[in-house]
Amino acid sequence: MLQFFRSIRRRLLESGKVKSYVLYAIGEILLVVIGILLALQVNNWNEARKARAIEHEYLLSLREEFKANLKELDNLISLNRQLMEGAKEFLKYTGLNANSLSIEKMGNYKEIQ
Q1: Going by C-beta distance under 8 Å and a sequence separation of 6 or more, which residues neighbour residue 103?
Q2: Do residues 98 and 89 touch, judged by C-beta distance below 8 A?
Q3: What is the pLDDT along the chain (113 residues), one digit of tens a residue?
């Protein structure tokens, strides 16, 4: 391919057609610019594809982390309910009315008097 372009350029210069050579040179420059622009476009597309893949991995990781956090929160809620039931059972022996006691009220008690 390069040999083809060299032969055209050499023929134009040898025949003395400067105007034709200048047009040929401009055309060759345009071809190079178009090639560079295409290469940049392909590179940008590839980089965007890589970024989307990384974003997808992050989102999957976040989903798994949220699932683990939800499971841990469910376990903590269950534990707190058990503790609340135990505290109510304990209050039966102290004389306080455990049935009227809510979680919010229970959090307000610092000391049992």
Answers
A1: 80, 84
A2: yes
A3: 667 767 776 776 677 676 776 777 788 899 999 999 999 999 999 999 999 999 999 999 999 999 999 999 999 999 988 888 887 777 777 766 656 666 666 666 554 44
Task: Give the up-direction half-sphere exposure of residue 111: CA atoms within 13 A in the CB hemisphere.
Answer: 1
Note whether 112 and 94 are within 8 A (CB).
yes
> Residue 8, class by beta-carbon neighbours within 10 Å (0-12 exposed, 13-18 middle, 19+ buried)?
middle
Spatial distance between the Cα atoms of 102 and 107, rounded to a whole number of angstroms: 9
